[in-house]
Amino acid sequence: MTKLNQNRIIDSAFKYFGIFCTFFGLIVLAIFIFNILAEGLQRIDWDFLTNLPSRRPAKAGILTAWTGTAWILGLTAIISIPLGVAAGVYLEEYGKKNRLASIIEINIANLAGVPSIIYGLLGLEIFVRTLNFGGSLLAGAFTLALLILPIIIVATREALKAVPKSLREASFGMGATKWQTIWYQTLPAASGGILTGIILALSRAVGETAPLIVIGALAYVPFVATNPMDEFTVLPMQIFNWVSRPQHGFVVNAAAAIIILLLITFIMNGIAIYLRNKWQKKVNW
Amino acid sequence: MKNTGEKIIEGALAFSGLITILTTLGIIWVLVSESFSFFQVVSVTDFLTDTEWTPLFTQKHYGILPLLTGTFLTTAIAILTAMPIGIAIAVYLSEYAPKNFRKSLKPALEVLAAVPTVVYGFFALTVVTPFLQNIIPDLGSFNALSAGLVMGIMIIPMISSLSEDALHALPKSLREASYGMGATRFQTAFKVAVPAASSGIIVSIILAVARAIGETMIVAIAAGQQPILTLDPRDAVETITAYIVQVSLGDVPHGSLAYKTIFAAGITLFIFTFVLNNISFWIKKKYQEKYD
């Protein structure tokens, strides 16, 4: 009887332990966000967004950092979206049984596990040195595009997989070729899922720091980039630079810049989750 | 005519897929070629057995061990934090929680993984370390402990999500048999479900280890940049990744031996994550569909 009671107690005790663990990470994150808001919110004003970097914390702004992030986001999207979607379409629609496709598939699983800093070493040798892009936006965008390519490919495949066969068969029945079927039927039907994956991948690129440090992105850039061959900095780089300085004023700046960066990532993730839910409802064919 | 157009398109699509293979080949080529010329100067034995790593000092030593212990220490702390919490979450969500709760909490936990790592680094340095210093007075302002703990929080969703998937995939009959014998949910969870889903749970932990080994910004910001051979979590340490960052931020001339050290460190890191990823791949293949 006591044994039975003991078992019941353990059983319900674990329930509360489980709830505690589930919320533990989220509570820690909430404490952290509260902390950052308390520290950095009063620092955010128009000047902070439009000032160039400076040695004096009170005068320093994030203009070069957020414009750099916008550049990187745009260029990375231009490079990675066509390549990623095309590769996903090939693997899902064409290469079902051939050897090349299965090698690519294993390879993508492996690439997804390669640490981001290794992509930085690749970018440093290939884009910065061999192709002579230097520490430019273009070198950074190519490096990040390779980094997020596996995410976009996998998302594209998942989305295409969810499109029912009947849709393709109807199109073939009307005399459409394989590519016409993909372009006019399958891809539009899968677009919600693909878009979700693309946004998540790009939000990952926006938060990356390590590979950009390795390819030589600078912490101090006194001008706004105007073309893809310009040197650049991004928000995470600026935050890293400010965190490493001893004066408290820079820590406040870092907190303020983190608020902006988190805002960008959370908005992107929010859009992605919204699209996913909307698309999942529609996709119950 | 139509056919050639179709062929050209298929070729273009296949080429996009090939880019991923070229990426892998590029990574291997870059790491191998640069570290090859490094190992022509520094012997592999020195690299693996020397206990000092001082390529940037006048008295140069090239022993990777201090970087390995630094990486090992922060990774171990992260996994010891994330594993119990992650598995408890997975068990709770799959065996205890109401269905709706599970559906809304899983994406919420993913938020932890969406936060940029540089933000976690700031958190470790400015919040966690000062907090821990109240409890452990001789904790340095850079230390392996808070970097590891924060990294653990970051990888919780990796373990919880994949482990939950593994538990969720188990056939219902397994649990019903256990309940039929009069077992509680706790007994069913830990004596039946977790052992049955163990391969999936192990895979999640291996992938989390690989992630922790390759994590860069948290350790570069909060763990310090001192390559000291120590396993004391209160000390400042330097991981392989933090070393690569340190050299990249400095003015090391291209082609010098110091420049090549980041590729030697990089290939060491790559080998570790590559082996771990393939072990997890192998386990997944081998134990998949056990219940089908």
UniProtKB/TrEMBL annotation, chain A:
Residues 66-272 form the ABC transmembrane type-1 domain. Keywords: Cell membrane, Membrane, Transmembrane, Transmembrane helix, Transport. It comes from the Bacteria. It is a multi-pass membrane protein. Its main location: membrane. Belongs to the binding-protein-dependent transport system permease family. CysTW subfamily. This is Phosphate transport system permease protein PstA. The gene is pstA.
TrEMBL record, chain B:
It comes from the Bacteria. The chain crosses the membrane at residues 12-32, 64-91, 111-132, 144-167, 188-210, 262-283. It is a multi-pass membrane protein. It holds the Pfam family BPD_transp_1. Its main location: membrane. Gene3D superfamilies: MetI-like (1.10.3720.10). Part of the binding-protein-dependent transport system for phosphate; probably responsible for the translocation of the substrate across the membrane. PANTHER family: PHOSPHATE TRANSPORT SYSTEM PERMEASE, PHOSPHATE TRANSPORT SYSTEM PERMEASE PROTEIN. Belongs to the binding-protein-dependent transport system permease family. CysTW subfamily. This is Phosphate transport system permease protein. It comes from Fulvivirga kasyanovii.
